[in-house]
Each structure stands twice: as C-alpha cells, then as structure tokens.
Amino acid sequence: MDIVQEPDGVSLRQLLMSFGEPLAELQYAPDLDAPVTGVALLDPEDPPVARAGDLVLALGVRGRSALPVLRAAARDGATAVAVKPAPGTPPEALRTAAEDAGVALLSVHPEARWDRLDALVRAALAVGRPQLTHADAEEGDLFGLAQTTAVLTGGIVSIEDTANRILAYSRSADSDEADDLRRLTILGWQGPEPYLSRLREWGVFQQLRTLDAVVSIDPHPELGLRRRLVVAIRSGERQLGTIWVQEGSAPLAERADQALLGAARVAALHLVRRRSEVSADLRLTRTLLAGLLDGATGPQTLAGHLALDVRRPAAVLGFALPGGPEPGRSEALNVISVHAAARHRNALVAPVGDRVYVLLPELPRGVSPETLRGWAQDIADAARRHTGEPLRGAVGRVVPDLHAVPASRAEADRVMDAMAAGRITADIAALPDVRAQVLLGELLELLAANPEVRDPRLTALVAHDARHGGRLAASVLAWLDGLGDVREAAAGLHVHPNTLRYRVRRAQQLTGLDLSSPEQRLLAMLQLRLPDTASAPAPEK
C-alpha cells in the first residue's frame, strides 16, 4: 500500500475535472464536494487499508473481485475507490455496493495505465485545483451564440457584462439597421454614458436586477433609439451580464422574448465558465448526463451535481443532427440549446455522435405528451427556418423519476432509428404515434440478423428473381399488401390483373409456398420486406 497525503486536497468534483479525458468515469458519488486528501495504491497482496479522504486505486482486482476492497475503503473513511471493470460483467453490483457503503465509485478505462492516473491525481493534489487546457478556455463561442440569437429573434444582438462592456455581438447584413446606441456601443466596446443614464432613468437596470424576465424598451426616435428587448444573464441570484436585442427594419420575431430567455440561460454557462472552472464543470456535467442517458451511471450523482430532485418526472427529447459541414451542425446544436432552455429552465443538452439529447428533469406532474411534442416541434421548425436544414426528432415518454431516464432515451432512439430507416416521414414523433412502423422495423432487423429463422422458400424466391430479373417476390408482396385484391395490387405494379395472378401462382409453384395459409402469408409479408427484396428491379411501367 503506497499512500500520499496532502494537507488540503481537492474536492472529488475538482479531481474529476482535472483528468481532462475519460480515463475514469464516475459511477456513483454520495457527495461531489467531498474532499480527496490522498491517493492510495492497493496491491492485491496487501490487506485493504485506506485513510480518511483517500482515493483508493484498486490495482490487480476487477469487477466483483473488488467488492471487499470497496467495503474496506468505505469502512476506513476513503472518499472514493477506482476500479477497472471485468470484461462482460455489468457494473450494477459494484455500484449498488458503493451506494450501500456510501463511498464514491470510479470506473477506470480498461486501457488506462494506473501509473498515469496516479500521476494525475497526485498532480491535482499538489496544485490544489484542476488544470484547464487551452481548448477548454476557447470552448463556447459567445459570438456564435449572439449570431444564433439574432437569427431566432430577428433582431441585432449584443452580449454585455455587468459594466455594460461588449463581450460579443451579432453580424448585421445591413449596417443602416443599427441605431445610434448600437453603433456607439460597438465602436467603443461599451455603452456610452449619456444613453446609459437614460436607461437608468427609465428603470431598465433596476428591472434587470430584480426581474427574471425580458424587459421591453420602447423606441425613442428623438434619441436615435429603436425598440429593444433586454434580459439579465444570471447564475443563481448573481447577475453576470445582459443580452440586448435591437429591432431593425423589420419587427422582431413573434417569440423573440422566449428565444431571448433561452439564450440568457445558455450564455450563463459561458460567462460562469470565464470566471471559474466551469468549462471543466460542464465537461463533468456532460459526462454524468451521458452516463445517465445510457444507464451506466445512476441519477444521484448528476442530481447532486446540479441540485435536481431525483423524484420528479422527466423525459428525453432526441434529435438527429443534419449531415454536412460542421458549422451547420453547430448552428443546429445552438438552436436546440437555446430553445430547450427557453421552454424548460433545467433542460440539459448532450450531443452524442450524430444525435443530440435534451433531458427535461423536474417536469410538473401531469405534463402532457402533447406539450413535449409541441416543444420538440418548435425546435425542429426553428432549426429548419434558421439553418435551412431539416431537423428530425423523437419524444421519449415521461418517466416518473430520474432513475427511469434511460427508458425514455431508449424510446426516443427507437423512433429515431425508424426515421433513419425511412419508415417514418414526420419531423417529430413519439412511439405511441408510430408504434406499428417502429415494431415492424425491429422485427425486420431481427429477421435480417438471424437468417436461420427465415423461410428458405422465400429466400429462394428472391434469389430466383435476382438471377432472372423477375418480379415474382414483389408481386407476391403487393398482392399480400392488397389483402388479395388483385385489381388494386396490379394497378400499383402497373401490370394487368391476369399478369399478377400468373405471377402469384408461379411463385407458389416454384417454391412450394401455400399462400392460403395465414401463417405463411404473415411470414411472407414480413420476410419479403427485407432490404435484399427491396433491391430487386423497379416495377414495370
């Protein structure tokens, strides 16, 4: 047992931030602010002994074999235990044991080297705070947010700090749309005092200090001022700055105030990040959120990190990011973030691959699925208007608490999978709306992945068409889809009814199929929809 003890240490939250990459993922933590004052390397030959405040690195044990180490560390007052998972072993047993023992549990990446993790922990303890990278400092573009907000509100946007200094502003295609206050503010990078005095006289700044709402300022042509909306950017009770939207030659968008509220909540993350270590904190939030969405991490840690009520209802919205260049995808992500925050204060957004998930925690009890579908549709419509790209998404079911969030995400994924396969044409859908399409797609995937459960006679029919350029399989499927109505099915294939009758008889003669059997008809309707059937020649004209 090798132990290093530091007098002050760092919080578990800070330690996780300092890693900078997924060397270890947090599985459970009773308190993210618990201090880590030392690191203990546990050799399997040594008795499991730790000191209060230790992070125990469990070398040489994996999965369930680490249970005695975890319990002993908790008994000795250790803050956390880091364990490598055993291949093929789910983490639930260790996580449950950690919850029962009241000790944090970290899952170390199987390929991570213990000596590197040990060095990172010791460095963090020596410095006493996490080290942020250059990439962290640049993450989050306020200018990009200002431009997105301008598009959503239909106005000209500037983001300012509490001293009315410009932090970012939107580009304007027509410089004549900017009024005197806008021009002077941009030129001087700060609001001019004569105009600021008028705003103080009108009580604008007082309202911003006391109201968590959008403040509207009437136009004053005699002062060269056009209509404005302004909202405070807040982190808790603290005001961090303001976002201003000036009306140009056209009126502001109908829901400009709602978009502005969402933008203020997104801007708060950027501004807090500039003042402290929240870029790393956001990375931790995203990690915890991703873990909750896929069920790898329980909800208590994320709830403790963000002061969320685990017992309140929640739901997941999923969106498929458009293809194409990265700027368009980033713009879509900005639109999703702003609109989600505008509709639900505690909305959390996590991009995962080509999809973006919005967790809506602490929903009011009894919230209707129609409400969530409306929110998702508004987001999709906004993305289509402002990026020119379609944004398609799914609404997961409302679940009773944060423990069931993975089920809501899985439901949204099932719908988006069906959308990706072309089975659903709607921009936004929930599983109850499209259950038949989703279940059919999943059945076809099972058939495609398991050739042994297919009827070889149907497989032979498709192969016969491929060799001879025939349309027997497609004709049988059209006849089945038409419920035996030969005229309707023949019209869909653009052939004579007698031709269709001949093809159905010929298919049965070649294969031995008995299409008078309900079971064989049902199997044929499924199996003939597999992709290899769809690739047959086009229908005759």
TrEMBL record:
Domain PucR C-terminal helix-turn-helix residues, every copy: 473-530
Family membership noted in the UniProt record: Belongs to the CdaR family.
Pfam families for the chain: GGDEF_2, HTH_30
Protein name: Helix-turn-helix domain-containing protein
InterPro entries: CdaR-like_regulators, CdaR_GGDEF, PucR_C-HTH_dom, PucR_C-HTH_sf
Organism the protein comes from: Streptacidiphilus jeojiensis
Chain ranges of the CdaR GGDEF-like domain: 302-417
